[in-house]
Design goal:
Butyryl-CoA Dehydrogenase, subunit A, domain 3, single chain, four-stranded mixed β-sheet, globular, 11 helices, Butyryl-CoA Dehydrogenase, subunit A, domain 2, Butyryl-Coa Dehydrogenase, subunit A, domain 1
Length: 378
Amino acid sequence: MAVLTEEQSLIKAQASAWVIDKAPVASFRALRDDPTQGGFSRSTWQSMVDMGWSGILAPEACGGSDLGYLTFGLILEQLGRQLTASPLLASSLVGVSGIMLAGSPEQQAALLPGLVDGSTLLTLALDEGARHQPEQVALTATAVDGGYVLNGGKTFVAEGMVATHFLIVARTDGATDDAHGRSLFVVAADSPGLQRHALATVDSRDYAQLVLGDVKVDASALLGELHNAGTTLDALLDRARVAVAAEMLGTAAQAFDMTLDYLKTREQFGSVIGSFQALGHRAAALFSAQEQARSCVEAALQAIDDNADNIAELASLAKCHVGKFLHAMSNELIQIHGGIGMTDEFDAGFYLKRARVLEASYGNRAFHRDRYATLLGF
């Protein structure tokens, strides 16, 4: 596991205390039961902005603090523990990372301040089908005088109904499945010809399907090199994958804590069930898996901060390993709690549903096992 600095330890403690007090899982339950809220609490989001979380990755010149990905990951872990809904991951990490990786100095100066102060919500629109396939891009961007015209669709766009802007991956050259020929565009959500439709998901979060019909953007909307977004997109997706893994770690860790508390308090046959050897062995195995997952996630976050040459391998390792633990832990949460774990009144179901969505986000375990093996030459 990474050795945290004093500042990182303080930020982690602050995030833990704040989430428990101001944005617990009970708040998420209220959001689920009131769909008019749009997927997250605006006051909760403003509090995150006020604490500086939305600017952790941005440079100081643009209003940020440039504290790095490990620090951001520590916060995402705490949010994952309480299933706190917000645009922090989609906009402040993925969106900001996209601008930092591909944007020109002029584009960064124009977009980052709004992302830092929370007034701009920028989210990545990549996938076009049920599975994560980054090279499968059919949405086209055709060059016209002074700009481009975009046509096509995107699906499962995180925070897609509340976003003010989209970072859209478009096909500008080559066949649908070519790695070459993809380009990145920043498109305002209110652009004429852009429609978005809410998608109902089991985790009750904000996802949208986008339909673009002759959406015209200026040439300045192009982010990075034309036809050559592949390398930038890979780097951006790896940052997104590790960030999701950090949230997954928090969700799994809270599921473990809930299960452990139950083992210590539930009595059967005159004894707490945690004293039963079989259940004790299961808890020990789950704790070991949790610490292995934590090591993978923190190593990947640190690698991004260090600009290491093995970020891709560590990103897939972290996403796959924590996905395996979260899948098992969310199942154990239900099983060990028994009948109460199946009820809506108990929170276990929320963790199970969120786990299944996160497992598929930015590539499931099968995707990352294959990618990891390919990267290592197998």
